[in-house]
Amino acid sequence: MRTTCARAILFGLLSAVLAFSPGEFFALAQPQQPKQPPQEKKKEEPQGEFALSVEVPLVNVDVVVTDGNGNFLSGLRRENFRVLEDGVPQAITNFAPTDAPITIVLLIEFSRLGQSLFSYYATQMASDFLRQLKPEDWVALVSYDLKTRIEVDFTRSKEEVRSTLSRMYFPGFSEACLHDALMETLDRLRDVKGKKSILILGTGRDTFSKKSLDDVLKRLRETDVTIFSVVAGKNYIEYLDARGAFGGMWGATARMDYLQAENEMRSFAAMTGGRSWAPRFEGEWSGIFSDVAASLRNQYNLGYTPANHARDGKLRKIKVQIVDANGGPLVVQDQKGKKIKYVIYAREGYLAPKPGISD
Predict the structure, then answer these.
(1) Cβ(325)–Cβ(82) below 8 Å
(2) Backbone φ and ψ of 189, nearest 5°
(3) According to the model, what pLDDT value does residue 173 have?
(4) Does a structural domain hold residue 11?
(5) Fewer Cβ in 10 A, N or C end of the chain?
(6) Do 61 and 40 contact (CB within 8 A), yes or no?
């Protein structure tokens, strides 16, 4: 009976996708985007080997280039990019700056942890971020404590999200199941087309999830969703620490929990090409959220068909370089003719298709 019901549900979902708009189906796990160029991946700071499952010949790599001060370098052309896969140069067949509308999920911690102060920070942060969105951008609001709740499905109405946030006063539970919430959100975004991302706003602590950290990390190696994260209540945690609230064995354990949570938030972002922040002052929020939006709006999308056609399911390492017309390192100068150092953000790899998986 369970199998029959499951098939019926899946059939109903597939039928509904053909009839309705994107914002109506986030809760049903398969929202569709308005017409947007397909995008696969995006990367930030090189911290380890990250992977993305690919089941088609074309590999897409979203690239962001900034100078040492965080300013985005625009105006680069296809010939300015070189892509190496396992050290072998690849022929770039697709190239375009990506200026498609943003699709982002605000995933906020809304629990009683910290006497609900962390939830207060998370909701205020989410409200501030909405100022960075344009009329054509899509946003959804998802909260989590013991359970994950879709507060607002995908919408272009920022006022609807802001109004919902203003009514979120009293969290229901003292648990914060971030792992479960993140896994569920990634599953719902699996079939959403175009540029998509998640902004996690919370402490990063996980107290009662069914899914383990290892489960989450494995899932992140297969996703094309970019994750950004901002630690909520960092200033409050440091306030408590400075006043000895984390003294003794129990206090030291609690302090370690928050440090580990912050580290996990950084890992989630780094593995998917995003960025992570732990602001100590509310005055930092505006700049942080501006950087999140700007990162999504200043990408170059590169596509290539791998020279290595082996279907071995192995990790393929990707390295993106910026070159001049002669193939040497591109030299960028400021108005005074001084060389500018630049940083390239791109995913470091993907998982090749396994034998038996057709193109």
Answers:
(1) no
(2) -90, -5
(3) 95
(4) no
(5) N
(6) yes
The conformation of residue 46, written as its DSSP 8-state character, comes to -
3-state SS class at 128:
helix
Do 197 and 227 form a contact (C-beta atoms < 8 A)?
Answer: yes
- What domain count does the chain have? 2
Q: 247, 263, 295: which is the final residue of a domain? A: 295
Residue 22 lies in a domain: no
Q: Is 80 in the same domain as 154? A: no
CATH code, 194 = 3.40.50.410
The verdict on residue 67 lying in a domain is yes
Q: Determine phi and psi for 77, rounding to 5 degrees.
A: -115, 170
pLDDT, tens only, 310-351: 988 888 888 999 999 899 999 988 878 888 899 888 877 777
348 vs 266: CA distance, rounded Å: 16
Beta pairing partners, 277: 230
pLDDT at 35: 42
pLDDT in tens, 42-75: 444 444 444 555 445 688 888 888 888 888 888 8
The domain containing residue 83 runs over which residues?
59-98+299-351
CA distance 156 to 134: 9
Q: In the beta sheet, which residues pair with residue 142?
A: 107, 150
214 and 266 share one domain: yes
Does one domain contain both 305 and 275? Answer: no
Residue with tokens 């175009």: 194
Q: Is 38 within the bounds of a domain? A: no
pLDDT of residue 100: 77
Q: Are residues 245 and 192 in the same domain?
A: yes
Tracing tokens 């602590």 back to the chain, one arrives at: 205
DSSP symbol at 326: T
Length of the chain: 359
pLDDT tens digits, one per residue of 297-320: 988 889 999 999 898 888 888 899
- The residues pairing with 299 across neighbouring beta strands, listed in sequence order, are 98
CA angle centred on 147, ends 240 and 140, rounded to 5°: 90
Residues contacting 350, CB < 8 A, separation 6+: 41, 51, 52, 53, 54, 59, 315, 316, 318
Last residue of a domain, one of 277, 295, 313: 295
